[in-house]
Amino acid sequence: MGNCCTGPKPPPQTSPDANKQQPQPVYTPPPPQAQPEDPNKPRAQVFAIMRNGHEVIRGLMKDCEVAPDMSTFRRALAILMRWQELHAMSEDGTPFCKGFFAVLNERFENLAHQKGLLAAHRDLHALETKLIQTAAAPSTTLDQVKPVYMEWQAANEKHLKAEEDVMMPCVKKMMEGQVNLKELLQMEIMPTIWDRPDFGFFVQHAAATLEKYPDGQPRARVWVHALLAISPAERWARYLPYVKAGLSPSLFKAINDEIGMEAPGVPLWAKADPAPKATEKAKLMAFAIMRNGHEVIRGMMKDILVAPDPQVFRERVAVMLKWQELHALTEDGTKGCRGFFAVINDKFDNKASQAGLLVAHNKLHPLEEQLKMACADPRLRLGQLMTLYRQFMDANEQHLKEEEGVMMPCVSKMAQDGVNLKEILVTDVLPCIWDRREFGFFVQAGAATLEKYPEGMPRARVFLHAISKALPPERWARALPYVKAGLSPALYKIVNAETDFDPNSPASFDGA
Question: How far apart are CA 139 and CA 151, in angstroms?
Fold first, then answer.
């Protein structure tokens, strides 16, 4: 496992994998101040994120077109459909971010709507469904699927060209009007997707495809440079490993020499979260048990996305669903303990009920059951399982964000008012699960996942520090072996140096 103080290790230099993705934080920071451009380096063309995105799609379509057999075709098609879906989100928008078409509507008198850009995505759906169903049938041959694919490809190329005919003149006018395109991308377009767990997949396959199909232009460099230019440092530290995984070593070096993606001799992700001094004691953030619990769930969802086979997929789904079930108990409450939602209701005029937080858990239940049933069916292959899983993942991510939209302002208000948050955890939240036999699993899996996916932050330390101070000593003595089992020895030593959570005395386990 990686050290939480140095950020995530880069993925190995392998061929792009459609299932390699990454976890998603939910906070989108305000746009940073623009850095002065080096006149000796190429100028970043930030809207290449969108325009060269079309060239990624065209390249992935070529991969499908030249596939020599059905196995290769199905894999290429899966990558193409997933990548284009993410690109389309950046255009269509989400409940949390406008998207490019909404920007065009606002700035150019409803132009995207008038030109039918959003409707065109819906029109393509029927052909996509027909193509996917045809390709998924076990008996389908390459000769049978190719006519269906070519019909969709022709429609998709027409749609890309129509978008470009609208998009590029608008981008040119905004540049001439000195609109801050970088800020536009940071605030209104890229947040549609850059906090998703599969954004790493998006970056890696864009880099790989644009290198494969440059068409005599530096397309990979231009796209990567655009992503670098709009990404705050902590985000770029997360994206860079996927750029490395997508590009050949020679092109990575050439691009790095041109635009300075990585400081010579010092990987950028190592600078994103410098190691704290061992003598400094970390500040307790009691409610990280709840908030970083969401990051545990997101990390586990990422693990599922990169499962290499159906058996590992089923095992990881079981772990994630069990961990989320325990976390949900701390929110919903039990017969013997109120739970966090009841605390919010008491202190904030029934706000949890009004926001539908408990109802949201009930709405997720059918998707959870569907996923469990799919995992229990030995006939289903990995691609079929992933299709069902992504439906659950998208709904679950939306639910987590909605909870955070209610939870974090309430926690901030309680902290400002001097409410004893530790006491709330000890009396109203953690007793929901701390006597359950799976509590050791909860601690161990939480620690391991947060070490694996730190996102440039000391998430494992913050989570464990909160638990160590919220549990009574005898309960912490029982939990500590699970902490040790979950963390790497190196990180365990660092976290203990910051928090003193291990008394290093065998007596502390007597009678535990």
Answer: 20
Cα torsion 61, 191, 193, 101 to 10°: value is -50
Residue listed under structure tokens 């001097």: 418
Contact in structure between 110 and 93 (CB atoms under 8 Å): no
In order, the DSSP letters of 243-261 are HHHHS-HHHHHHHHHHH-S
Please report which confidence band the pLDDT of residue 38 belongs to, taking 50, 70 and 90 as the band edges: low
Torsion of CA 146, 152, 155, 158, to 10 degrees: -70
Determine contact, residues 245/280, Cβ cutoff 8 Å.
no
Inform me whether the pLDDT recorded for 268 exceeds 60: no
The Cβ of residue 393 has, within 10 Å, a number of other Cβ atoms equal to 22
pLDDT at residue 509 in the model: 27
Eight-class DSSP state of 116: T
Write phi, then psi, for 337 (nearest 5 degrees).
Answer: -150, 140
Q: Does position 339 have pLDDT exceeding 90, yes or no?
A: yes
Report the percent of the chain where pLDDT is more than 90: 53
Concatenated DSSP letters of 292-348: HHHHHHHHHHHHHHT-SSHHHHHHHHHHHHHHHHHHHHHHH-BTTB--HHHHHHHHT
Please tell me whether residue 378 adopts helix, strand or coil conformation: coil
308 Cβ partners below 8 Å, 6+ apart?
Answer: 19
Indicate yes or no: pTM above 0.70.
no
Contact present, 428 and 434 (Cβ < 8 Å): no
DSSP string, 182-242: HHHIIIIIGGGTTTSTTHHHHHHHHHHHHHH--TTS-HHHHHHHHHHHHS-HHHHHHHHHH
d(CA 334, CA 431): 9
What distance in Å separates the CA atoms of residue 345 and residue 277, rounded to the nearest whole number? 40
Q: Can you tell me the distance from the alpha carbon of 197 to that of 397, in angstroms, rounded to the nearest whole number?
A: 9
Q: Is 274 exposed, middle or buried (0-12, 13-18, 19+ CB in 10 A)?
A: exposed
User: What band does 209 get if pLDDT is binned at 50, 70 and 90?
Assistant: very high
pLDDT tens digits, one per residue of 156-185: 999 999 999 999 999 999 999 999 999 899
CB-based burial, 413-442: b 16+ in 10 Å, e otherwise: ebeeeeeebeebbbebbbbbbbeeeebbbb
From the list 92, 72, 465, the residue with the least C-alpha distance to 287 is 465
Residues 231 and 28 sit within 8 Å (Cβ to Cβ): no
Distances (CA, A) of 393 to 92, 277, 301, 304, 396: 19, 38, 7, 10, 5
CA atoms within 13 A on the CB side of 375: 19
DSSP designation for 430: G
